Fold DS cell adhesion molecule like 1.
Amino acid sequence: MQKVTFSSSVGVSLPCPAGGTPNVILRWYLATGDDIYDVPHIRHVHANGTLQLYPFSPSAFNSYIHDNDYFCTAENQAGKIRSPNIHVKAVFREPYTVRVADQRSMRGNVAVFKCLIPPAVQEYVSVVSWEKDTVSIIPGNRFFLTSYGALYISDVQKEDALSTYRCITKHKYSGETRQSNGARLSVMDPTESTPSILDSFQSGEIQAGRSIELPCIASGYPNPTIRWLKDGRPLPADSRWTRRLTGLTVSDLRLEDSGNYICEVTNSFGSKEVTGHLSVIDPLRVTLSPKNLKTGISSTLFFTCAVQGSPEFTVTWYHNTEPVTADQHISIQGVHNETLQITAAQKKHSGAYQCFANRKDQTAQDFSIILLEDGTPRIVSSFSERVVSPGEPFSLMCAAKGAPPPTITWTLDDEPVVRDSSHRASQYTLSDGSTVSHVNVSSPQIRDGGVYRCAARNSAGSAEYQARINVRGSPSIRAMRNITAVAGRNTFINCRVIGYPYYSIKWYKDGLLLPDNHRQVVYENGTLKLSDVQKGMDEGAYVCSVLIQPQYSINQSVHVTVKVPPLIQPFDIPSTSIGKLIYIACVVSSGDMPIRITWHKDGQLIVPGSSGVAIETKEFMSSLQISKVTLKHNGNYTCIASNDAATVSWERQLIVTVPPRFVVQPNNQDGIYGKSGVLNCSVEGYPPPKVMWKHAKGIGNPQQYHPVPLTGRIQIMANGSLLIRHVLEEDRGYYLCQASNGVGSDISKSMVLTVKIPAMITSHPNTTIAIKGQNKELNCTARGEQPIIIRWEKGDTVIDAERNPEDTWRIDRLILMKVQGEAFDLKPAERGDSVFFSCHAINSYGEGRGLIQLTVQEPPDPPELEVREVKDRSMNLRWTQRFDGNSMITSYDIEYKNKSDTWDFKYTTRNISPTNNQANIVELHPASVYSIRMYSYNKIGRSQPSKELTISTEEAQPDGPPMDVVLQPMTSQSIRVTWKAPKKELQNGVIRGYQIGYRENGPGSNGQYSIVEMKATGDSEVYTLDNLKKFAQYGVVVQAFNRAGTGPSSSEINATTLEDVPSQPPQNVRAISVTSDEAVITWSEPPRMTLNGVLKGYRVVYWSLFPDGEWGEMQNITTTREQVELKGLEKFTNYSVQVLAYTQAGDGVRSNVLYIETREDYPGPPAGIKAVPSSPNSVVVSWLPPTKPNGIIRKYTIYCAPSEYEANPEQLFYRITHLIRGQQYLIWAAAVTTAGRGNISEKVTVEPAGKAPAKILSFGGKVTTPWMKEVRLPCSSVGEPTPTIKWTKDSEDSAIPLALDGHRLILANGTLVLRSVKAEDSGYYTCTATNTLGFDTIIINLVVQVPPDQPRLTVSSTSTSSITLTWIPGDNGGSSIRGFVLQYSVDNTEEWKDVFISSSERSFKLDNLRCGTWYKVKLAAKNSVGAGRISEIIEAKTHGREPQFNKDQPLLNHVNSTHANLNLQGWTSGGCPITDVLLEYRPKGTWAWQNLRANASSELFLAELREATWYELKVKACNSAGCGNQSSQFATTDYDGSTIPPIKSARGEGDDVKKLFTIGCPVILGTLGMGLLFIIRKKRKEKRLKRLRGEDKATIPVTDTEFNQSVNPQTFCTGVSLHHPALIQNSGPLIDMSDIRPGTNPVSRKSVKSAHSTRNRYSSQWTLTRPGQCQASTPARTLTSDWRTVGSQHGITVTESDSYSASLSQDTDKGRNSMVSTESASSTYEELARAYEHAKLEEHLQHAKFEITECFISDSSSDQMTTGTNDNADSMTSMSTPSEPGICRFTASPPKPQDYDRGKNVAVPIPHRANKSDVALGSGSGTATLPQRTMLGSSGPSAGVGAAAAMVVASSGSSGGPSAASKMGGSRDSLLENSSAGIGRLQKQGAGAYSKSYTLV
């Protein structure tokens, strides 16, 4: 309530919106802070705090009262708060007219009529309707009404010009209606013209949640089209945005709807636009914390004012309704002054604090109550004296209270308690503010005895407690320190005895046993107290004597020194007057010397000589002298004396008196009645004089003065003047201003106040009635100071009979002293004379006005009839009487008939009461059409009939069921239901839809129907029931429903779902090997319940497993038996076997893999054989093992006719000696297994020789090995002379000698050893043996197998309990994929579950998941090498949400005196079954909650409740998706069933404190935690910003390969999203092996995997556009691929994983969307090749170069993201500051000639074939670099191959030495083919490439 507008004829009551406990005092003030005073019959404040403004005549208007800002306050002992300012404004019932201007429009265009309302009343008057020829216009068809009251006519026709148009308005406060003039529309034929705006919108501000209409309409020919833009872009697709003829309507406004709106109006001849800014703001909301606080004086307080809503606001603070200003204790901080801090709080700071947030006409506030107490600590619990034995643990407890909570310290015999392993101290604070401290001594010794003292201290003071703890043992006395005592005070001396027992403790002084006087006391614990210490008597040595045996004591002495504090003799300062002398002496009568004496005035040190003050100080006295006293010497003077003992002071006040005198004297003056006036009177003096005003009534000589009663209306101002806020006639007379201050005599001065009366209308009729055609006389009487001028007005027109003789007015005037009357006659009245006449009275002091409403009566207009409700057999009518003929309506008649009948057959309802505005017509026929009209009557006569309405009665429930219901099973879990609508005569209306009920009829079903609902589509319907049980029988019924309800159901029909695949495998699967190529598999049938159909047979799936780890082709056999013989198997081979059952629906689940091995057989022949001479009489034979050993090779047999030799199976060569030189020998070999000797090898011929050319015994061929293994490539040779061995590795069209290092080693026998082989070690290796007689060569193709690449995982579908996943495998790494590992977990946990999936599967359904729950899923493939790279983690949510309560339903069904029944039907499950219902309830005003738990299916009662008691109730309904909450309050009934009234919440002070600590502690801890988190994030952000600025650089080279400049280059733009790799997801037990493939640094991966399982998503995109059109809007291609680069330099290790997507991208934003959509997709090189091939075909890459234009970062949370610039300044033409964190934009320059030699290390993707590995090698000098991206393009169309992108990994090597090249593999189906010639051309043009380094953020 911030603005109150009311009618002057009604008045208003404003309750103060405040309350509290204990009861509050309510007061009202003006916004200026002035008190509210009562003005008789105008304004009054009631005792309950309600401000009432009474109805008043316009002449009594006072803007000070009737148009001003008010606020109220509420005050009790806790504090005082105030309301926001409330603007109160009175609105007069004043005359006004509304009008409508004529309009012009072209036929077919739009016409706009506006109702023109005078600005003075525009705020209160609104358009309620429009009339066309006196008939109300109903919006629709071509007529539209806008929300702000305009009338739009679309598709204007010629006949529209024949009508008149009027608007009808209504006053918001007076209820008056007005009708405008009639306006006409001119319709013209269309002519070609530019658009013209007819109605438009302007900038504005509106609150969120509301609706707004932005008008925009135009005319023109051809008809213009309208287009809406927001912030320069087309409007988003949102149902909240509605385009109508009237403009744009936006409902349910949100903050993001703010912006610039443009309405573009266009036709073929031009365009125009309207622009406006819409600001959507949230309402202000304020939260002040802490809410309530009780603490101690001197505490530090912090208040935080949290403001939500509108961004532009100001914050104001109030303390007890007074504005808070900063001082030494108070500071206001924050951008918006939202923080208030009070340091060293004092008692005055207690009370109520309010925070006000203001923005334009919005205000919000919150308050907090602060109670400051004396917080001096006090001991509330302590320990007592005790005796313990050595080693016996003891604990001492001390508790204290104070504010703020005190801190407790411990001492033992005045020494701090030592903390060690046996002495421990603890301290904690309880919820009530008490501080509790414990001292625990675990193993006490004798030294631990003595006097223990606990001292509690805080900022307010301290408190102590002590007691002795005796530890048994030999007594002794600790050494005691000397004591200094202050004379006159008390001193305690402790005898520090330890050990126990002892007999006594005694004190001696000068040999005398103490005590020896009344000031000495010796306590039992040995403490000596000296009271009122005296220097001469108490100073000296004191001896403590402890008797430990009857005749033996121990002694210890301590010396006491007494110091005497100063003592000031009291003195007084007499009052004095200005100009006199004064002398003040301060004498110290005793105290130890030296004594220091100083003087202070009002707390400030007096500097001698300043302000005329002289100070003279001697040894023990000081005097202060003032030679000439002035007013500034007034104040408190303090003499301060101090010495080593103490500081004392004496203070007195100096008063300088001045008699009163007038500064401003009262003078006679005039006051105007009803206005405020000030009677000036100002005095001065000291002490400040007191001013009293007196009043003597009458203008003659004053008879007797009386004190002026000071009320809210009359007050004395601070300067002594008298303020009269509202001058009345009785205020006239003499006034006396009298002043006194006790100095000299009083002064006074009188004056005369004359009250002038402004002109006021005292008598006039407010309303009067005229009958049409009669004359009317109007009278008006005024009073006030003469002369008075009276003027008459009719409406806004001044009546002047002299100037307008045609107006028949006659005016008569009467003047009597100050009263003047006037009357005139009115001509015969018409309806237009029903207006306001005003009588104006004017004099020199004011103006009064009287309004007279003249009413001309006539028969009423017909009522406006509308149908409020129509039922099947009744209707409810409502009407509005627009114009009653200015006479009260006496009755109504209603007539109705069937639409097809005439009014002669009407039905009539007569004499309806005029107090009714609605009626029910009953006994109608359903679904029938009726015509209705109505008449109204007043005392003048009957109206014309109302507009005839045509209505149709509502529908009734169908009376017949659907017909011809047919069921057809569709799948194993679905049945299609078809039916026809009920008979037409039984439908009782339009069938809206159907309810299908279905239930399972099999064993174990509960017989309950499940219901689904669908909309009707026609006479024949179909619906499919899903998620049914497989191969189960269901019964189905169907019901039809219309608007009225549901009809009867059809008869139940049964159907059975189709078969499905078996859900379990066959049981008891066994395998037996029969022969070397045959095996028998047996099994038994799966469980019957899992067949899901009729078993058709079985299928056996089997495949071989070769020794090298590879799998053979998968085969299967189908059978109907439970046994099968597998024939034709490979001999002595391992096989994997699985069995499955199948039905008509397909294959079921496979059984677990069963392993079997076939038996041994005869081996095959050796795969190869060589024989070479080694000497004149010997040869060496070597061979290869058989391709099919068919068993374990036991030995080899070598034949050299006619001899036969044997060799071990591990030895693959044999030397045959004793041969004849020059003779040829025929040699062959055979292998032997346990089955026997196999076939022989091919035969070779050899001749021994003396000198032999070099020959290699080893064989070439293909060698396959897993990565990270050691591989030996043999190259054994013979020859004479001994051959030399050389190894080379093929690279494109050349061979490169192998460099020997720690990775490569050549043994003495020529074997090449490769350690820890990597992917790039794959390739063709050539071994050459050479001597002087010749050479020999073998070629070995080395294939290194790596783990498979990551699969691309996606979600295909979800349900309430399942998620179905599909994937595409990545590259298999050279080894067959053996299976997949799927892991999933609930999103907010890291508890991963594993699922192992067959290698042949490409989809999987996760079942039995929680409803409405987010899950994380990831997948990895496995091959013979190991687990591959993990897929991106994807997230999916099962269907469902948490329960919600229907707000339209009651929370409780029934409540009596002891029980309450909970309405569980009001909860909607959200799709997930409700599992638990939790209740908490308690009687209002109590603390403890009572709990109750139940399930959702049971009926729930609250029992044993108290009768006639209010309860608080909280209900929580939970399902797997979450919990929904609902709270309420209810009251039990009295014993007799009666209800009880509501109660106010009363809460005790203790409850507030408890709640404060309960709520405050977590809030504070949470705030501290958030603050710490904010600091950490801020420092991380600063670190990233430093890197962004180049202060911390990590540079990643990116290589661009440019084409030969002889070809005209064409460019395409690329949009790149580059991501730092250090945060690749690594959660769960799956091992991501991608970073330790060959060529990577495994050490870097360790650091990555040690991080938390942070999930990050990466995506990159390259956008390819047509050459030369980078800036155009041509559609672009976006290519995607998966690539990884690894390298290290200077300790920096980087691993990158980027995903590319193949999609169209129109602009950067859409490119980003594409990135987002492919976050979980990682494609292979096949896709990159495919995309490049497609682009090449469209000539997108012909003659193109790559230019990096933008990079986007999708995750900025990593600390390791860095940025920097290239060292080469010309590499980058522009580098701008990122427009937002994590995003950089830069452009690469064209290449320079000098850069062409930089990019020689390039590679292209080569297709990967089944038994072949093609390798492309780049040449050039290699240096240690970080990973490089290489972009390679052809020099022209003749290159034969389109441009390709590839990754290059450069490993470190010596300068100028050979560099290792990467193996680049594509998939088997790669679309990018390269011939060797093409590769050669690509390499040749490498000389034209260059590389540049960019920084990736």
Observations:
- The chain has a mean pLDDT of 78.
- The first helix runs from residue 63 to 66.
